[in-house]
Amino acid sequence: MPTVQADNLSKTFHVADKQPGMLGTLRHFINRSYRAVQAVRDVSFAIEPGEVVGFLGPNGAGKTTTLKMLTGLIHPTSGSVSVLGQVPFKRRPDLLRQVTLVMGQKQQMIWDLPPMESLRVNAAVYGIPEDEARRRIDELAEMLTISDEMTRPVRKLSLGERMKCELMAALIHHPRVLFLDEPTLGLDVNAQTAVRNFLREYNRQHGASILLTSHYMADITALCDRVVMIHKGGLIYDGRLAGVVNRFAPFREVKLELASDADESVMARYGEVESIQGRVVRLLVNRDGLTATVNRLLSEQDVTDLTVSDPPIEEVIGRVFDDGEPGDTDEYTTGADSV
Amino acid sequence: MKRYFNTLRIFWSASISAEMEYRVNFAMAAFSSVMTLGGTLMMLFLFYRTGYEMGGWPWRDALAVVGVFTFLEGMQATFMAPNRTRVTEHVREGTLDFVLLKPINSQFWLSVRTVSLWGVPNIILGLAIVGFALTTRETPPTLAGLASGLLALGLAVLMLYSLGYLLSTISIWYIKLYNITMAMQALVETGRYPITAYPGAYQAFFTFVLPVAFMTTVPARLMTGRGGTEWLLGAVIVAGLLLALSIGFWRFALRYYTSASS
Which of A270, B212, B219, B234 could form a disulfide with B152 if both were Cys (CB 3.0 to 4.6 A apart)? Predict the structure, then answer.
C-alpha cells in the first residue's frame, strides 16, 4: 500500500475581487464580487514507503496548497487523499504522530531560548519520555553537527543552524512521512549540503517517505530519483528525474571552442545560442538534426573542441515552467514514465 | 491526561525561563501594579471618607471587589494576555499550521502555551486585599460563604478566559487584531467597583450581556455573605456557557481556516 495516495485532488479558492481606487473600494464594500481560483486541479500521484520524491513547480503552481491538503491542513474541494491509510484532514493524533511538515520560511523554535527548550516542548507534546527525548536529541544533533549550539538562544543562531534545529524539532518523534517545503531556502552551500546529507541518512535509517519541494535543483538531484511536476495547478510529469530531460528537452547542448572569437549571428544559424564567452559557445540543437548540425559545424567552422551533452536539468525545467500556458497542461501525458 | 500535564509543566518552565531573561521587566511590573492599586484605593477612600456607600456596599466589602478585580487583572496578564497575542501572531505568520499538526488539542496548546510573570504582583496583591477586607470587617465571613466565593472566583477566571479566547478566535478572519488585550482590559475595568454602583441599564448590560458582574461583584458578594446560592448557580451557568461557546467557536473558525486559507 502506498504511504501517500492522492487521487484527482483539486482545490478551488474563492477570492474577493477589488478594483483599485476609492470607487473600487466602495463597490467592494457594497457588492463584493468573488472569483473562483483553481489552485490545484486533478492531481494524482502516490508515494511508496521509503521513497524520496521531488515536488517541482514554479511559484504559484499549487505546491504548497497540495502539501497542505496532504498534511490535512486544508480540505480538498474534490478528490481524495490518504496518508498511511488515513484521511489526513481528520488530523487524528495517531496519524499526526507519524507525519511531519517542515516549512523553510516558517519556524517553530522559541526565539529567546536555546533550541533545547523547544525540543523539550515537542517531546512532551508527542509523549516521548525525557530520557528517550534526550537520546534522540543527542543523536539528531550529532547527525546535523550542531551539538555545540544547543545551549545558545535561537535568536543568536545562524540561519543554517536554525534550520537544523527546525529539522530536529520536526523529526524528534521519528515520523514515517516527511513533507518538506523548501527546507534549504536561503541556506549557504555548506548548510544545504549538510541538510541534504542528513535527510538522506534519516531516510536510510528510518525508511521514511519524503516529499520534498525545493527551488534548488541540487537538492532534488541529490535526493530524489523521482519527481512530480505541477504547473498552473495541474500535474505535468510524474516519473524518473532522468526522464525529465528526454520528455521535455527535444534538444541537446553543444559546447564549442573555436579558434577565434565567435560571432553570434553566425552561430545562430546552427541552433539557439545559449551563451558566448569569447571563443566558447553553448548552443541548443534539436535532437533530430543533431548529427547533421555537428557535421556542418565541424566542416564550416574552425572548431578546436566540441562536446555534446544534455542541457542542465534546471534549464529544462525552467523552460517547461516558462512555456506552459494556462490550460495547455493536457498536452502532456502523465505517468507514462513512471518508476 | 498525564501527557497534557507534562506538556503544561514544560510549556511553563520554558516560558518562565524566557521571561527571566528580562529581569528588570518584573520589577517594573511590580512597581506599576502597586501604583495602579494605590490610585484605586485612593479613589475608594475619597468616596467613603464622606460616608457615601457605593451601591449600598460598605467600605470593606467594596474593598473586596477591588481585591477580586486586581486578582483577575493579574490572572489575565499572567496566563491569558500573552497567549492571546500569540494566537494572532500564529495566524499572521502562518505558524498556526505547526500547532494544528501536533497530536494535541489546539485550543489547549494556544491557551496555555506561555505564562508571563508580569501579572504575578497583581495576583498576590489582589488576594491580599481580599484577605484584608474579609478579616477586618465587623462580621467575619462564614466558611460556606468563603468556599462559594472562592468557587465563584475560579469561575470568574474561566469566564475571563473564555471571553478572551472568543475574541482572539476572531483573528482567524481578521488577521490584524492587535487590540484584543485592550478590549479585554476595558471590559474588566468596569468590574473595578461593585456593579450596583452603576445605573440600572449599565447593571443589566454588565450582568446579562457582558457578564462582568459575575466576574468581580459576585465572588465578593458571596465571600461577604451578601448573596445566596442563586448567584453561585448563575456563575456556574454563565461560565459553562461561555466555555462551551469558546470551544464551539474555535472549531467553527478552524473549519473556516482549513477550507479557505491558502
Answer: B219
